[in-house]
Structure formats: C-alpha cells, structure tokens
Design goal:
The complex is a heterodimer. Chain A is an all-alpha fold. Helix content of chain A is 75%, strand content 0%. The longest helix of chain A has 37 residues. In chain B, helix 2 crosses helix 14 and helix 8 runs antiparallel to helix 11. The chains are: A mainly alpha, B mainly alpha.
C-alpha cells in the first residue's frame, strides 16, 4: 500500500531528489573534511612548529606556518637524542615480540584447535582469564623478577615477557577452527606429522590472519610507553616512545627542538602506515568482526 | 561408552601408545607459550597477590601485614580521588569516543562521497602513532604562551589559562587527547560493521518512505548493536588503563587532578617504592577490569554460537 502511494509522485521529482542527494553529499563532505582537519591538526602543527625558528614559535601572534623555514631544530634534535639507537631498540623490541608471539601463539592455537588432549579446557580457560587481566597488575612483580634475572636494560627483558599473547592465541584458535578439516585429511592419510600439517596446511591458509595479528602486535609494542619505561632505565635501551617522553621532561622549554624530535619519532610509523594503509585499516576492521 | 573405550584400549596396545604420543605432541606444541605464561604471567600474578599482603618496599624489613594495605587504601582519600579520576576519565572518554566514531563511520560510509579513502586514512592516522609522542605537541598546544588553540580562543574572546595548570581543565585536556587517539580506530570497526548490513533493508525502507532518522533508528542501530557492544567494551577497558598522555602532559597533576589508578601504581611502585601497597592497587584495578571483561566474555560466547 505504502509502495503504491509513494512510488508515482517520486518519479516527477527525481531531479529534485538527485539535487538533494548531491547537496547532502556536499554537507557530508564538508563535515568530514572538517573532522579530518581537526584530527590531523596537532600532527600538522607539530611539523610546522618543528621547522620554525624559536623566535617565531614564542611570538605573540603565532600562526600555523611561518615565513622563515629552518632545519636547525632537526640538527639539534639529532645531536641531542640518539635516534638511530632508539629506532633500533624499538625495531628489535616490537619486531622481536611480533615474531616470537606469532610463532608461539600459532603453535598453541593449533593444539587448541586441532589436537585432542587432557587438560585442553583448563588451558583454554587459563588463556581466557589472561585475556581479561590488565598487564599493569604484574608490573611490580615482573620488575622484581627481571631485576633478579639481571634482565633490566636488556632486549630479552623487554621481549620475552611478551613472547606469547592471550589475545593472539584466542584470535588464531578461532581462525584455525574456521579452516575446513578436509584440507589436512589428505596430508594426515599420507602420514604427515602434526608439525608438518601445522606448517604446510594451517599456516599457509592463515597468512591474512597472521599478518593482521602481526601488525597488531607490532603497532602495540612500537607505541607502548609503560612497559619500556619500566624495563629500561638506561638511555641506551630506551625506545622511541619512552625516549621521547623522558626527553621532554628535561627539555620542556626548547619547543622547536622537542617538536623536531617528536616528528622524527613518529615518522617511521606514519610512513609505514601510508605504504600499507589498506592493510592497516582492513586489519582493524577484521579484528572486531568476522 | 567408557567400558567400550577401555576394552578397545586393552585390546589395542598401539592405541595407548599413540594416545600418549598425541598428548606429548600437543604439549610440545604449547610448551613455549606455557612457559612464557607461567613465568611472566601466572607467577607474577601470584607474587603480586602475596606482595599486596606485605609492607614490601625497597627499604626496611618485609613483613606480612594482612589486609592492612587494602584497609589503608579504603581509608585513603588519595586512592578515592584517583578512583574518581579514573571513572571520570573512562566515563567521558568512552561514550564520547563511541558516539563520535559512529557518527564519523556513518558519514564516511556514504556512497558517492568523494575522497573517502583519504578522509578515512586521515581520521585513522592517530591510531598508528605513539600516544606518548603525540601527547608532546598536545602538551604545548594547551600552553598559552605558544599554543595556537589558546591563541585562537583568545582571538574570539575566550581567554583561557594554561589548561594543564588548572585542576578543572587538565582532565578535559587529557580526555580530548584520549578521544583523539582512538576515535579513528573505533570508526573503522564501525565501518566494517556497517558494511555487513544488507543494502536491501535500506532499499525497502526507502520505498516505504522512511526518513533518514527512522532508517537509522530501525535498521542501522539495532543491526550494529554487536559492534557497539564490542567497541564500548574495548573502549572502556582501554580508558581504565589510561596512562601515556597523562604521563607526558601532566604527570598526574596539577594537585593529582589527572592521576588515574595506573598512574598511582606507577608512582607508588616506581617512584616511592611502596611495592606492596602498589600491588594492592593493581588488584583493585584487576577487579574493576574483570567486571567489564565478564561482559566481554559473554559477548564472545554469544558470537561463538552465532558464527
């Protein structure tokens, strides 16, 4: 009934409807651009401030851009902070955690998804409990443990406590369960070992899931502050995040210098994001759904 | 069933051996993870519980003090103040982030919107940068002597003091940064949710002459309820653990007005070395987050049935 009533008058006003849709798109575009500008603004300001001379940064009438462009803040920041070292530490920390965690998590997830053994439910429940625990509760005992092991200010101290991850085990288990069993039956009949099936069938089928999870681990650890802050007490072991946060404490009045340092600290991640942007966004999208 | 299995086992000695082998294989697969979890997760968890019943500090003799740390906490206005701060932070950050994320997702999911990819990427950008580093420009932006925000506000007649020096404005400042960091992340999850809604629903509603609001209210919102729940829970858990931008922008100040529970653990444990006391605060945080995580568990269980 409603259909019959609305359809006929809709036809003559089709151009008007189209005009209204275009107008709606115009509004949506304007709002979206405004939102994007507001969100990017702090990062943009950080960059423009980093290329201003100090006198213009503290001027009474600050602008977003300045007439004179200088690279001296970068030269100073590069000398004040050992960026190659911080960068290397961050790569080793985030990369090490990612590689170890993907390996260990997928092995455990395989056992939980495909093998039958006593204690399976207990272990799965333990993983779920771990998933719910905020890691901050372990901060102090972990610090004491690492101190006793003499692992403070070491890569193993940064990496090994994070070498497995409850979310990773859970995520991969769910993914492995969705892989049809028929694929491995042939291999099993041929007498392939479980490890061979894990390696040649399951892992090969799970490349997208592993990439997604790997990106998560990498991004999370690359950007983490609290954990590296506690494990590294020596400037030569700082990561980009902890190094910059602590550097700010000492140089809070040298604005241009700090901004140049901040730009250098986030540039690697921003470039990585721009290069594999689609992958990033898809990863986040699949993490919540599917 | 059991006797049959028993008979089979007795009859076939190979079955027993292969069963033992299967168990061995399974535990070999899990060995690395189990060692890491035992040493770096469960042992510290138990240690933290024990510590929370001691007066352990770097100085002095360690003694068991029973529930004394917890009792002190409950009588400590500092702890209650920080708990209120944490709830304030989470209570504002979570709903605002989720609502903004949904609005942006609806906006950027419009068909025919030009430059959709670029706009999405720009809004998502904060999710990939380090919050600790991004908080550095924010800290300066809220400073009147150089910050553009305060300068522009001044130009339109709103004269603001240093936000980060004000016990009432410092918290809103760190909340803004918290929202800024995560809104794009949640938006992308919402966009993925929106794309699972069949287009036929909207076509049918349009034919029925349903308004934009009615279409949102009766189709989008109910069909997104799973996504909303997921996003709300992860946003809540994340905001109860807020630390990075607070550490960089205010260190919990001024006058502890932005000190959250995680900041308190850090300060008590690593600056004042009251390790037993800090462990007790850690367990309070566990209780709070456990509560929310139980909802998350129920959510995962429901999904496990659906898919």
């Amino acid at each position: 009934m409603a259909r019959a009533g609305v359809s006929p008058p809709a036809r003559p006003s089709a151009p008007r409807a189209r005009r209204r849709r275009i107008l709606g798109t115009g509004w949506a575009l304007a709002v979206a651009i405004a939102a994007a500008l507001i969100i990017v603004f702090p990062l943009l300001w950080m960059f423009t401030t980093s290329i201003k001379p100090e006198s213009e940064i503290i001027s009474a009438h600050p602008g977003l851009f300045s007439a004179t462009v200088t690279g001296s803040n970068y030269v100073q920041a590069w000398h004040a902070i050992d960026f190659p070292r911080l960068f290397m530490n961050t790569v080793i920390f985030a990369g090490g955690v990612t590689i170890l965690s993907l390996t260990f998590d997928s092995l455990t997830a395989y056992a939980l998804a495909r093998l039958d053994f006593p204690g399976k439910n207990v272990i799965f429940v333990l993983v779920l409990i771990t998933l719910m625990l905020p890691f901050q509760v372990n901060l102090i005992p972990l610090f004491l443990l690492l101190t006793k092991l003499h692992w403070i200010n070491t890569y193993q101290g940064l990496i090994l406590p994070r070498a497995t991850n409850a979310f990773g085990i859970f995520f991969l288990r769910q993914f492995f369960l969705s892989i049809p069993k028929e694929l491995e039956d042939a291999a099993r009949v041929d007498g392939a070992s479980e490890f061979k099936i894990y390696r040649t069938v399951i892992l090969r089928m799970s490349v997208p899931a592993l990439l997604t999870l790997g990106l998560f681990h990498f991004m999370y650890n690359w950007n983490d502050l609290l954990w590296p802050l506690i494990v590294s007490t020596n400037a030569s072991m700082y990561t980009l995040s902890s190094g910059l946060a602590l550097f700010l404490g000492q140089h809070v009045i040298q604005y241009g210098l700090i901004m140049a340092g901040s730009v250098l600290a986030i540039v690697p991640m921003v470039i990585a994001f721009l290069v594999i942007q689609r992958r990033f966004v898809e990863s986040i999208a699949t993490s919540g759904l599917r | 069933m059991r006797p049959a299995g028993l008979v089979a086992r007795i009859k076939d000695p190979f079955a027993t051996r292969s069963r033992r082998r299967r168990i061995l294989v399974a535990y070999t697969f899990m060995l690395p993870s189990l060692i890491v979890l035992a040493v770096f997760m469960f042992y510290p968890l138990i240690r933290a519980a024990i510590l929370s019943f001691t007066n352990y500090s770097v100085f002095g003799v360690t003694r068991y003090v029973g529930l004394s740390n917890y009792i002190t906490l409950f009588h400590n206005s500092q702890f209650w103040g920080d708990l209120v701060n944490t709830v304030y932070y989470a209570g504002v950050t979570t709903p605002v982030s989720v609502a903004l994320a949904l609005a942006l997702a609806l906006l950027l999911n419009r068909r025919g919107l030009p430059a959709r990819g670029v706009l999405r990427a720009a809004i998502f950008l904060p999710a990939v940068v380090s919050l600790a580093v991004a908080a550095i420009p924010f800290r300066l932006m809220f400073t009147p002597s150089i910050g553009l925000i305060t300068y522009w506000l001044g130009a339109v007649g709103v004269h603001s003091t240093d936000w980060l020096d004000s016990t009432t404005l410092a918290m809103p400042a760190v909340i803004i940064v918290g929202i800024w960091k995560n809104v794009g992340f949640y938006m992308v999850i919402y966009i993925a949710g929106l794309q699972t809604i069949p287009k036929e629903f909207y076509e049918a509603a349009r034919i029925d002459g349903a308004s934009t609001w009615r279409r949102f209210r009766n189709i989008t919102w109910p069909l997104l309820s799973n996504t909303t729940m997921f996003v709300t829970i992860i946003a809540l858990i994340a905001s109860f653990q807020a630390f990075d931008q607070i550490f960089v922008m205010t260190q919990g100040g001024p006058a502890f007005s932005t000190e959250t529970l995680v900041m308190l653990i850090y300060r008590q444990g690593f600056q004042q070395f009251q390790l037993g006391y800090a462990s007790a605060i850690g367990y309070i945080l566990v209780l709070i987050i456990l509560l929310f995580s139980l909802f998350q568990m129920r959510y995962f269980n429901r999904r496990a049935i659906r898919y």
